[in-house]
Design goal:
single chain; three-stranded antiparallel β-sheet; mainly alpha; 2 domains; Arc Repressor Mutant, subunit A; about 65% helix
C-alpha cells in the first residue's frame, strides 16, 4: 500500500478496508488482521492501526470481540453506504478541481459526457 502524504495514514487505512469491501475482497463477517499483524504488513506504527480500528468501530464498520479478533460488521446496507460516501468524496474533489480550472456548469457536463463516451469506447 502506497501512502499519500496529504492525508493521515489512519484515514487511508480506513479507505483501504472500505475499498476491499466494495471489491469483494472482504465480506460481511470476515475477520480482519490483528492490529499488530496489520501494522507489520503495512510497516506503520501500531498506534496508527489502533486509531484506524477505533475509528472504524465508531463508524460501525468493524466490531472487536474480546479474545476472538476484529470482524466486519454484519450490516447488509453498509456496502451501499460506503459506495455512496466514496463516490460523493470523489465527485466533490473532482468538481472542486475542475472549477478551479475555470470550467463552469454546461462545460463541466460536456467534459464529463465526452469522457464517459471515451471510456465506453475503450471497453
Amino acid at each position: 500500500m502506497e501512502f499519500d502524504n496529504s492525508k493521515p495514514i489512519y484515514l487511508q487505512i480506513i479507505d483501504y478496508i472500505k475499498k476491499q469491501l466494495i471489491r469483494g475482497e472482504l465480506n460481511i463477517g470476515d475477520k480482519i488482521l490483528s492490529q499488530r499483524e496489520f501494522a507489520q504488513q503495512l510497516k506503520v506504527n501500531p498506534n496508527t492501526i489502533q486509531r484506524a480500528y477505533r475509528e472504524m468501530e465508531g463508524m460501525n464498520l468493524v466490531e472487536t470481540i474480546r479474545g476472538q479478533g476484529t470482524f466486519i460488521c454484519n450490516r447488509p446496507e453498509m456496502l451501499e453506504e460506503i459506495k455512496e460516501e466514496m463516490a460523493e468524496n470523489i465527485m466533490r474533489s473532482f468538481f472542486h478541481e475542475i472549477e478551479s480550472l475555470g470550467y463552469k456548469d454546461e462545460k463541466v457536463l460536456d467534459l464529463v459526457s465526452k469522457w464517459q463516451k471515451r471510456l465506453k469506447e475503450e471497453k
